[in-house]
Amino acid sequence: MSDSELRPRVFVTGLIQPGDVVLTTTPEPMSETIRKFTGADISHAMICVGTSSVIDSTGDGVHARNLGRIILEPGCAAHVLRPTEPLSTEQLRSIASFARAAVGTRYTVTGAAKSVLAGFVAGRRQFCSRLVAQAYRGAGVDLVSDADFCHPGELLKSAALVEVPNVLRNLSPEEEAYSREDIDNVQAMRDSTNALLQEARKLSPEIESLNDIDAYLVEHPEGDAQLVQALRFSRYLELWRDEFERNSWQYHIAIMEGHNGSEERKQTYCEELLADEELCQNRFILNHGGYVTLNTSHPRQYFALMVELYDILTQFHARRVKAATAWLERRGLLKPAPPKLLRPHTSEWFAALREWNPKQAVMTEAAIQSRGSSDVCSVCADDPARDYAMVSMPAAGPGTLRLCDDCFRIRALEEPMKPF
User: Fold this and answer.
1) How high is the mean pLDDT in each 10-residue block of the chain (420 residues)?
2) Domain limits of the chain?
3) CATH 3.30.2350.10 fits domain 3-170
4) Three-class SS of residue 380?
5) Residue 35, φ and ψ in degrees, nearest 5
6) pTM for the complete prediction?
7) Dist CA 40 CA 24 (whole Å)
């Protein structure tokens, strides 16, 4: 056995991109059985949705994991596969959105067992290779002949994928000791999500994912109080506090500068964060807008709490992006870019407002339509009105408004603005 086979290994996460398919195995008996039955050296499949972030389906359901924390025991194989035809940005977003929407979905042992057979009807539960193949199918790419029933060995042999070389490295004894003792912070999110869904399934066994809770509440308002209690019991609304306390250096440039981490680590973190942001801008904005819409048409305390949660998450994510951008700019690693301000009532302005606050966008559009002119106040539709920009750019939304004098005086008390 070679030295590389005697040491545990980890992935070189910098070489792995969103959309990549990650295949692994373990020394466990079940893994060995799967490998023998499928004739492959791997037994598990994951899909990369961001830097060091993968989503997979295991015994505790569909969840995100930190790719950098996965340790391959000596002798265990792993492969990273990438589409032979590069994916478009829209395809990458579709794949990531599909995988994220499935978070919390329960694992199906029966479905996994049937993955090497044919003639079965796919249920809503997931197993690892199905999740990957279905995510790609939703983006218009067929990795296998049957995305509903496939096994990791089929993904390994897929003509639509090509292997990425040199994605593994050996762990030194020192690194191994640290890695095995380090706490998996993503586990807290998995545990919280499962606790929330476990309570929700007491109301309806048909609930699989977090999205199913929203659909259930629309039809069953009587479940609101119990689901609010489940939110609080699971600590789902509080996890952001743990993350902030754990990594407070990521949220302010001054703290980042004084953090005792290496320059190389900080640079890697900042560059990876901005790369993910460019691929898929702050997804918390879209979630916030979705819950604003739900709570407007179907008022529920659960939806209102989720609006508040995604408001916080959006602001904190924007702080991370701002700090990372400033750190790179100070070192000449990123060219400073002036904030992009949108002229009020243009199509781009409305698109930004719809993402963040669909209710306000609808109200403004209706006011403009009733007056037959876009040169009116964004809030009350009075004229004359002038354009203003927020002195401090908000975490989301267009950052500009068209206001009459009365609305300007009222809004400027809490949000300092300047003429635009």
Assistant:
1) 68 92 91 84 93 87 88 92 94 92 78 46 74 95 93 94 95 76 76 94 94 95 97 95 92 94 90 82 84 95 96 93 95 86 94 91 90 92 93 88 94 90
2) 3-170, 183-330, 347-419
3) no
4) coil
5) -65, -40
6) 0.84
7) 11
